[in-house]
């Protein structure tokens, strides 16, 4: 009788270990399923690119602004992936990758200055500034980002 009880206890302990191992494997499977779902979502997005301008055509003035102001590029030529929001002026990168941003600012004569800042997650990444005391001047800002 004691031999049978000992065998039963050993068998029960073995079953508990197997159950614990199965739970670990189930947790790992759920993590992998989540990762697969994320990768599938990234594949759905595909390519991302946008091209937009402040003005529909030609040149003109924007500003001055007394404080930092988000410039909203409302005239959108291209918005592949719909990552740029022309209502807020915010681009949200839907997938990890390399992104390139390029902009041009200018000022004309007098003691006017102009500048633009590229902001990523509320952090200033790059600043372009132009101060032309006579004639006209243009400055290009460009940044590749990951």
Description:
It contains one helix and eight strands; from the N terminus they run H-E-E-E-E-E-E-E-E. With 146 residues, the chain is of the alpha+beta class. The chain has a two-stranded antiparallel sheet. Strands 3-4 form a two-stranded antiparallel ribbon. A two-stranded antiparallel sheet has the order 5-8. Strand 3 and strand 4 form a beta hairpin. This is C1q domain-containing protein. InterPro entries: C1q_dom (IPR001073), Cerebellin_Synaptic_Org (IPR050822), Tumour_necrosis_fac-like_dom (IPR008983). Residues 43-146 form the C1q domain. Keywords: Secreted, Signal. It holds the Pfam family C1q.
Shape: rod-shaped
CA gyration radius, whole angstroms: 29 Å
Quaternary assembly: single chain
Count of discrete alpha- or pi-helical segments spanning 4 or more residues:
1
Report the count of strand segments: 8
Strand order of the largest sheet: 1-2
Poorly predicted regions: 139-146
Biased composition (Basic and acidic residues): 7-24
Main location: secreted
GO cellular component, one term: extracellular region
Keywords: Secreted, Signal
What is the gist of this entry?
The chain is built from one helix and eight strands; from the N terminus they run αββββββββ.
What topology does this entry show?
Layout: H1 2-45, E1 49-53, E2 75-80, E3 84-85, E4 90-91, E5 99-108, E6 113-120, E7 123-131, E8 136-145
Antiparallel strand pairs: 1-2, 3-4, 5-8, 6-7
Characteristic terms for this protein:
146 residues, alpha+beta, 1 helix, disordered C terminus, Tumour_necrosis_fac-like_dom, Cerebellin_Synaptic_Org, C1q domain-containing protein, secreted, signal
């Amino acid at each position: 009788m004691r031999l049978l009880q000992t065998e039963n206890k050993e068998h029960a302990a073995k079953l508990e270990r197997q159950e614990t191992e199965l739970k670990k494997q189930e947790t790992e499977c759920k993590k992998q399923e989540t990762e697969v779902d994320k990768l599938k979502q990234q594949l759905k997005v595909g390519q991302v690119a946008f091209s937009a301008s402040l003005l529909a055509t030609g040149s003109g003035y924007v500003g001055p602004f007394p404080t930092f102001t988000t410039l909203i590029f409302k005239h959108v030529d291209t918005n592949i992936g719909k990552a740029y929001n022309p209502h807020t002026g915010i681009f949200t990168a839907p997938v990890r990758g390399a992104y390139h941003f390029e902009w041009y600012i200018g000022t004309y004569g007098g003691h006017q200055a102009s500048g633009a800042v590229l902001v990523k997650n509320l952090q200033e990444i790059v600043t372009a500034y132009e101060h032309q005391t006579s004639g006209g001047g243009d400055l290009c800002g460009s940044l590749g980002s990951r």
